[in-house]
């Protein structure tokens, strides 16, 4: 039986959480706020398999 190596970039999970920062500007009181949005993306190196 062959042993497979885990993908190092996603730790064998097959997906990566990507964070994007969104800037929201409020014109009524001249303020702004930051908002982080997390997206679950498929791993590019192992294509979602988790092993190489």
List the helices and strands and how they pair.
Elements: E1 15-26, E2 31-42
Antiparallel strand pairs: 1-2
Outline of this structure?
With about 50 residues, this protein is an all-beta fold. It has no helices and two strands. It has a domain at about 15-45.
- Largest beta sheet: strand ordering: 1-2
Q: Structural class, from helix and strand content?
A: mainly beta
Q: Which stretches are low in confidence, meaning pLDDT under 50 for 5 or more residues running?
A: none
Series of secondary-structure elements, N-terminal to C-terminal: EE
Number of distinct helices: 0
| Largest sheet: number of strands, sense, barrel closure | 2 strands, antiparallel
Oligomeric state of this protein: single chain
**Envelope shape:** rod-shaped
Percent of residues in helices comes to under 10%
Q: Tell me the total number of β-strands.
A: 2
Distance between the termini: 16 Å
| Average of the residue pLDDT scores | 81
**Radius of gyration in whole Å, from Cα?**
18 Å
Question: How large a portion of the residues is in β-strands, by DSSP E?
Answer: over 45%
């Amino acid at each position: 039986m062959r042993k497979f190596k885990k993908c190092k970039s996603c730790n064998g999970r097959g997906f990566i959480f990507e964070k994007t920062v969104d800037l929201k500007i409020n014109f009524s009181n001249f303020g702004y706020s930051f908002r982080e949005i997390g997206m679950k993306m498929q791993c590019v190196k192992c294509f979602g398999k988790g092993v190489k």
